[in-house]
Amino acid sequence: MTSLVNRILCRVSLSLITAAAVTTAAAQQSEIGPTTDAQVQSQNKTKIALIVSPKGSVLSEAAAPIQQGILAASREATASGACELVQYELSNPQDAGAVLKKAADDGAVLAIGPVSRDAVQTISEMPYLPLPVVAINRPSGETAPELFLSIDISAESEVEQLAKIAVENTAQKADLAANNFVILTTQDPYDERLARAMEAALVKAGAGAERRHISSDQIAYLRQEMRGKAFRGAFFAMNAQNASLLRPYLPPELPVFGTSYSNPMHQKDSMLAKTQSNDLNGMITLEIPAEENTSTLVAQYKGERENLSLEELQMFSVGVDAWTLGTKWIDWARRIEVPDGLTGRLSFDKDSGSKVKRELVKTVVGPNKTGKASEEDLVQFTESAEEAGL
Questions:
Q1: Three-state SS for 199?
Q2: Is the pTM of this model over 0.85?
Q3: Domain ranges of the chain
Q4: Rounded-to-integer distance, Cα 323 and Cα 382, Å
Q5: Which CATH superfamily is domain 2-150+294-352 in?
Q6: How many Cα atoms occupy the beta-carbon half-sphere of 293 within 13 Å?
Q7: Which CATH class is domain 156-288+360-382?
């Protein structure tokens, strides 16, 4: 552990790295021969393994913004020669242990990744790890090796926090025998999955919940169906377009909640976003700090963020935070605090487990923009559940 403490920590000011700064894995290195100046310089760098999926794979394309965020955050450290990022491809989740051992044998002192849920699960079940690992997903179990740290990217983790906020915000309605929330969803597989997660989170938080599938031809009957029903609030497990169509048919006094998936301000079309925001005025949702404070938190990434979609921007922020956590986890720090994380206020306590906790920003949808909530509105939660394919 002492040797790790004495290694150069890659503490960086966040900016973009070019792809040329990333070297290939040891398989592409030359056979042992006379030591060159370049080889000596490489040996003096802090080597960090980046566990990636095979190029051209579905997961590789989906996780590309995460990798871009990692590279952006590491630019200063790699450009100065303090650190070297080495990519290691992981094709089969069952080979995760072998890939980590290869990275450690090559001199890596930290591994960032993988993103694959199955690969993360495999690593979490290993008895020990050959080097510290920052996994960008969360395993299903509660136990993990000593050097394992995980940051979740699932939608379910957001649902858990939103459920806690909903229960707290509607506590007075529970006294009026309206303990149940109604979850409005569609037949879309993702919407169904989100609805199930909402139901589970609400029950866990001490409230009741019932799911209702709504199709386009049922919207006109929704108001009549809701008449006489007493609910604490409504959850939208659907995109912003569908949610904005349904909201006018719900009682105006009924509190409504939705994840960032239902947030109309994520629309690329600003006019459409304003129209949907007008319909969803007052809906309580969550946002990552990077999207709430773009002028301050991500100003240094402006060039790289311009060509990314809103979903990709969130994944990019995950990559930046993974790097930040890694520069601290490389020392086996048992407690980590990142108050200005792009995906939330991050905290980690190894004595309490291997999972990073995040605090997202509670926002209220309005016709012009989402409003940032006060400090008191932040609710701490431990991320959980799975991301489809990740």
A1: helix
A2: no
A3: 2-150+294-352, 156-288+360-382
A4: 20
A5: Response regulator (3.40.50.2300)
A6: 14
A7: alpha beta
- Residue closest to 48 by CA, chosen among 152, 136, 148, 134: 134
Token pair, residue 117, equals: 């849920």
**Rg of the chain (C-alpha set):** 23
Tens of each residue's pLDDT in the chain, 390 residues: 332 222 322 332 223 222 323 333 333 333 334 544 444 455 578 999 999 999 889 889 889 999 999 999 998 888 899 999 999 999 999 999 999 999 999 999 999 999 998 999 999 999 999 999 999 998 988 889 999 999 987 788 899 999 999 999 888 765 555 778 999 999 999 999 999 999 999 999 999 999 998 877 777 667 666 766 778 999 999 999 999 999 988 888 889 999 989 998 777 777 888 899 999 999 999 988 877 666 566 767 777 777 787 788 889 999 999 999 999 999 888 899 999 899 989 999 999 889 998 888 899 998 765 444 444 443 433 333 333 333
Amino acid identity at 277: S
Tokens at 103, concatenated: 């990275």
